[in-house]
Every structure is written in structure tokens, then in C-alpha cells.
Amino acid sequence: MDLVKLSIRGISYSSANSEAYILILEEDETQKKIPIVIGNFEAQAIAMALEKDLSTPRPLTHDLFVTFIQRMNAKLKSVIIYKFHEGVFFSNLIFEKENGELFELDSRTSDAIALGLRVEAPIFAYQQVVQQAGVEFKIVEDEEAEEEEAELDEIDKIEQTIEEVIEEVANTPSPSDIRQKDMDEKTLAYSYKFIKETMDKLPFGNISWRTFNNNDLEGLKNIAISHEDYEFAAMVVEELKRRENSK
């Protein structure tokens, strides 16, 4: 069976399960999407690997395993998703020893991808897996487009509520004032908690950061890391990068 190369398109919250996430893989040639349900820990591990500039005070489990592989003079060559059965993806990690000998280890797909990303190993799947689990996104009809627009309007309202509450807590008259004056630790801690409680109502990546200046974002990132919430920290770093690139 032929192998096809996959790329990671993103991570999204699961609307069916508040404690689950959806990892979206995409076939490079046909752009078919493969959604994989993963847990919170795995989502954070993958988000950390995607965000190269984000580090942790102590090594995480996947980082430790990568170090072990390197100390054993082995190399992770690739990740292969070889089977899809009853909603579960099965994967192998393909290693190469120092003498060139190859060997494989069975792995959960989420763990395999988290490891592969850390060493920039390519991700593959058999054609049969893509045919079974791959989906194609089609242009929505007018009625569906209207529903999507209404949903986006609701998201805008939620984002506005977040900004208004944070602005009130910061005791400043406008978002522009907030950008000029740094939030104190208590306000940042409240903001972090409030955003976390509201995130289940927002799609992944649709949090509004306009209320926070760069120093505030650094503070939010540090709070997230102290809670081992590396996915949130990765989103903050992404916003800081976006601001830097837009200068």
C-alpha cells in the first residue's frame, strides 16, 4: 500500500466533548482532512511542539523520550499511521539505529505525532487510512452560510463581553489605556481565569487579545506556564509573534 505525506493544519476544541480536542491532519496532495480526537494532555504536548519558542522549566514526558532516543544514538525517522478501526487510529514510530538498522514501535497516534514534531520527523499514512477517515470540505450552501455568519456574530458578542469585563477589572476607561498601562498580577490572574472559563464558547484561536499589551501577554504566558497550561501559553506566544511580524 502507498504512503501519503500528512501535515498538521491545527487543533480545535471538540464541540461534542469539552475535555477533548480535534487534531486536524491534511494530505499534502489532495488536501483531504483527517480529524483525530485527542485528550487535553496530548493537545498541550502537540501545541508545545508546534510552538518552537516556548520552553518549560522541566522536561515534559515527550521531551524526555526524545532525549533518551538521542542518548541511545537512535533517530526517529518517521511516523506512520497504518490503520483506522472503529474510530481509533493506529501508528508506528520508525527508528534507525546507529548501524543503520530500522525498527518500529507501536504508539498512540497522538503520542507519535507529539514525538515526531519534536524531531521534525515526517508524518505518513497509508492511502487506505486516508480513504476511510479523510474528509473533504465543500462550499456551503446559502442557508448554511447564514448559520455560520450568525455563529460568528455570537462569537463577536462573547469576545466583546470578555474585553468589557477585563477592562472593568483593570479600572481603566478604554482598551487604549490598557495597552499603555500594564495590568497588575491580580488582574492578570483574574483575566487568565476568566478567559479559561470562557474558552469553551470560542473556537480555537478566536480569543481576542486586543485588550492586552505585550507586557500583559508576557504575564499571561508566565501564569499559564506556572499552571502547566502550555497550550494557552503557546497561543499567547503566537499572538506576540503576530504583533512582531505586523510592525
Could you explain how this protein is built, in words?
- By secondary structure, this protein is an alpha+beta fold.
- The chain folds into two domains: 3-171, Bifunctional nuclease domain (Roll); 185-245.
- It has nine helices and seven strands; from the N terminus they run βββααβββαβαααααα.
- The protein has helices at 40-50, 61-71, 109-118, 127-133, 142-170, 175-180, 185-198, 214-226, 230-245, and strands spanning 3-13, 20-27, 33-39, 75-85, 88-96, 102-108, 123-126.
- A seven-stranded mixed beta sheet has the order 3-2-1-7-4-5-6.
- β1 (3-13) and β2 form a beta hairpin.
In short:
By secondary structure, the protein is an alpha+beta fold.
Report, as a whole number of angstroms, the end-to-end distance: 48 Å
Task: Bin the helical content.
Answer: 40-55%
| CATH H-level superfamily of the largest domain | Bifunctional nuclease domain
| Overall residue-averaged pLDDT value | 78
Secondary-structure element pattern, one letter each: EEEHHEEEHEHHHHHH
Low-confidence stretches: 168-180, 201-205
Global shape: globular
> What is the oligomeric state here?
single chain
Q: Trace the largest sheet across and list its strands.
A: 3-2-1-7-4-5-6
Instruction: Give the structural class.
Output: alpha+beta
CATH C-level class of the largest domain is: Alpha Beta
Total count of domains: 2
- Topology, number of strands: 7
